[in-house]
Amino acid sequence: MDFLSGFKVNADDLRIMFNIVLGLIAGVIIAGSYILGHKEKRYSKNFAITILLLPAIMTVVIPFIATDLKKAVSLAGIFALVRFRSIPGDSKDILYVFFTLAVGIVMGLNNYIVAYVLTIVVSLAFVLLQRYWKNTNHQVLKITIPEDMNYKDVFTDIFNKYLVKYSVQNVRTTNMGTLFQISYNIQPKNDMDAKAFIDEIRTRNGNLTVIIENPDDMNGAVL
Predict the structure, then answer these.
(1) If you compute the radius of gyration of the chain from its CA atoms, what whole number of angstroms results?
(2) FRET partner for 15 with CA separation of 20 to 30 A, picked from 1, 61, 144, 189?
(3) Which pTM was predicted?
């Protein structure tokens, strides 16, 4: 029965199976570093699962396309399509996708030492940079105001009281044009009382929405 010949295990098949196991181990390290780097911030569970499994998948694909230019180009087109159809994410997440792909490709080509050195070095660097590289205290402030309010100088005294510096980022209409939302790039003073700052703004904007966001994750809270 000829179709049973497809189930015979040869040396190449064993090597690919071995690569899958090594790819999963590398994926665990990569996903672990991603989670550790975001320990105090939100992270996507689905993305963590993706980067955990992606190296193992790549170790299977690469041996079949390594010597075929047409297949390699087709694979690149598939990744481009997936990226195009995906929701834009954090630049660090995009970096992690390329990092994970690189590990899977190198491991699929049986360069195990290079693959694991890349995995450990980049993962460790990511965790250290995420945990210990403190960004300057810049935030995004979004204030909603009535359409008849002149926003140009209405908050100047409050900003001078609580902020080191500020600048208008953009202005847009909301609620069918009846409201404006002004976005500011701000740097708060070290001793700024956030609640008092928000309360004073609310007394000026008619108790409408005020949002402060961290530009690194843009998961701001409405205050």
Answers:
(1) 25
(2) 1
(3) 0.61
